[in-house]
Every structure is written in structure tokens, then in C-alpha cells.
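Quick one, C-alpha cells below:
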């Protein structure tokens, strides 16, 4: 069996780090993994996404349409945008901090609040304002690691493995803060 995880966000939110940490943690725990990231639009605050597929034997990083098990969305609109790739009943870990697209900022389009809320009727949505919670810890930049802590609750990877991989991938000067963020997410009540 393969677990299909999708990551979606906007450039600069740490999505590449997230896919790297999940991939390394799964490999260290003995799983085969395949992953990919699409980041070309990130320099202008455009959307970025990545996939990680974990299992005993994985042949491709690409998740077939409608086969996503978990979506980690750094922004609600990105959760909506990528939800069509999910299985019925999939898990959506959603940072509720909104980043309004240009057309919504210019009042030329509505932010799709109702459509985002409707995701809860199809999927198990876990809402958290990760930016606010991370800011309360000391720095909003650890929001992505906080979301990884929540994701870790849904994967069969040892906690010690997660913590080691986080330690190996974050700057030493921000290690304590990242570990606090991961622990906050790992113990976040679903």
C-alpha cells in the first residue's frame, strides 16, 4: 500500500523543506519513497506544490488523480485548488491564514470562503492558524514545521525519526524553535 501526500502553498512558505523532511523520515524508517516539487512560480509568490509517495515499493512520484490520501495546505485557497486530487474522506491539514490572490486584493474576484468551508463535507479537515501559533512561539517561519508535526500523527514513522530529520534539516540557530513547533503540531488535538 502507498500513502500519497500532497503539499500546496505559495512561494516562500517552506514547502521544499517539508517534502525533504517527510521523504528523509520515511526513508530512515525503511520505506521506499518518491517525491517531486514544482517551484518555478515561487519567485513571484506563485503557487508551489509537491508530492511524496510512501510505501514498500513506489514506482512514480506522481499521484494519480483522485488518489491523494493527505493534503497539507499552507493556505485555504490552495487546499481548495488541490482538493480535486484527493480520495473521498482524505485528510486535509489546512493552515487557515489567508493569503489573498491579486484579483481578490483588487476586489475583482471574491475569495471563495463557502467553497473552502464545503471541503469539510468531503474530507477530514484539520484547521489551524499555523502562522499565528508559530508567531506565538516566536517566529512565523516555523509554521511549516508545525504542520509537519500534525502530519506526523497520520504516518507510521517513529517520533524519534521525525525529530532527528527535523534537527538535520533546520538551521542550528533556529533548532529549538523548530523543535517546539514540531512538538506543538505533533500534540495538536485533531
Amino acid at each position: 500500500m502507498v500513502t500519497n501526500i500532497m503539499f500546496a502553498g505559495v512561494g516562500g512558505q517552506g514547502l521544499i523543506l517539508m517534502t525533504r523532511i517527510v521523504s528523509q523520515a520515511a526513508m530512515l524508517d525503511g520505506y521506499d519513497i518518491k517525491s517531486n516539487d514544482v517551484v518555478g512560480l515561487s519567485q513571484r509568490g506563485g503557487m508551489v506544490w509537491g508530492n511524496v509517495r510512501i510505501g514498500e515499493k513506489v514506482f512514480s512520484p506522481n499521484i494519480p488523480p483522485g488518489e491523494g490520501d493527505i493534503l497539507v495546505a499552507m493556505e485555504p485557497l490552495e487546499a481548495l485548488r488541490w482538493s480535486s486530487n484527493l480520495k473521498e474522506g482524505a485528510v486535509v491539514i489546512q493552515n487557515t491564514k489567508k493569503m489573498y490572490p491579486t484579483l481578490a486584493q483588487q476586489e475583482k474576484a471574491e475569495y471563495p470562503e463557502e467553497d473552502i468551508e464545503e471541503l469539510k463535507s468531503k474530507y477530514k479537515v484539520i484547521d489551524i492558524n499555523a502562522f499565528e501559533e508559530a508567531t506565538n512561539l516566536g517566529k512565523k517561519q516555523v509554521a511549516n514545521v508545525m504542520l509537519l508535526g500534525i502530519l506526523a500523527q497520520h504516518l507510521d514513522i517513529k517520533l524519534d525519526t521525525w525529530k532527528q530529520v527535523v534537527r538535520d534539516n533546520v538551521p542550528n540557530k533556529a533548532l529549538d524553535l523548530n523543535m517546539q513547533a514540531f512538538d506543538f503540531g505533533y500534540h495538536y488535538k485533531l
